[in-house]
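hey all, quick one before standup. I had two proteins in the batch that finished overnight and I want to keep them in one place so we stop losing track of which output belongs to which input. First protein below, input sequence then structure tokens straight from the run.
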Amino acid sequence: MSKPAIAIDMGGTRIKIGIVKDNVILVSASIDADSGNGLRNRLPDIEKIVKDLMNGQKLTPEDIAGLGIASPGIIDTNEKKILSIDKKFGDAPEIDMEEWCQQAFGLSFCIENDARAALLGEWKYGKAKNYDNAVLMTLGTGVGSAAVMEGHLLRGKHFTAGILGGHFIINYKGETCNCGNKGCVETEASTWKLPSIAKEYSSFSDTKIAHVSPIDYELIFKLAGEGDFAAMEIRDQSLQAWAACAINLIHAYDPEILVLTGGIMASSSYIIPYIRQQVENHAWTPWGKVKIEEAEFPASAALYGMAYLVNSVG
């Protein structure tokens, strides 16, 4: 039997903290990420919440398998370090997280990329269960991905395998991305890029979008549903970009199932059928059809994945 684990999901907007046993969250809390001001400022708050949650469950460190963090960025899982992170939690690569965990709690520590952690949660307990080949695509602030091939979570020699789907080039004449590449999926369709995408629209000042803040995909899908021409055009261009990413992921990793997750999937009733149709029309899969499914645990898969990892390495 696995022990409960402390699982932390470092989102750019919220940090989720839970005590997790298998696929059951015994108790959880979340705080504002305040990621623009770095991770170090947030560690005392995280420590306090973890201890409060443990006390509330009457758990001591001896009862806990360990602590695991799902983090954005490129993660060295061997050295347990954040190697590179894009803007959010900019000071994180300088912090010895394992030492912090040991001093704060006396627990073993592991860390993994957040998309990999979410895929692990879906693979072990959710929509990708019973599949040995699965890919996850997250549509949110950015576009993330992760892959399981032949029953193994892909990490790669330099820890970038599977996770850079958002940086596939789909428009080689496109704009420069945060990563330095040109025409990435993220520069064509992601929440961080959406305001500038909208402002490039030819008659932006005359659109409904111009008079609303913030400009996000909830707004775009709502206005598109009301027949706003600019919103419809932005929505359709975004759908094409995400479908191109999905097809690239399928061609790269040969999955049986593609799981879609992330905040933008609030509009899944529109997104899933579109991507299914595009994949059926354009992906080169002579063996049959890739299943395209919405995540079973859109808000908590990364916590489940980290609890599984903690017990696996513990």
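OK second protein, same deal, sequence then tokens:
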Amino acid sequence: MATVNGIIGHQTVTDKSVIDDRHPAVIRFKQFKADNGTIPAGEIVALDANGYVVSYDPASAATEATPVGVCIMDTDTSKDTIGNVVVHGTVIGKNLLTNGTASKPEETAALEANTLIWSF
């Protein structure tokens, strides 16, 4: 008798959770700057001079140096200019990003100092 070890389907889930459930998150639709690359889930975000969501840049001398929230899902700004941003609540600290790399403690501290978001 023959046996077959076939795979009918395969799925890999790579999403990471950004929201920590210790305190209910307040999420707002925000206008992202168009054609500004992909803003990844967990990215700390700020507003540019025109009020559009962009990645937080602590080295900037402009408005991008003040965090306003955390992007909760990958947002490709070449396709979507509206995205979901946590503006209040708790987030998972190890999943926070600044310019696509893991956030440093001082960047997380800036998020907490300038918003109603706390990381755990």
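Flagging for whoever picks this up: The mean pLDDT is 90. The first strand starts at residue 19 and ends at 20.
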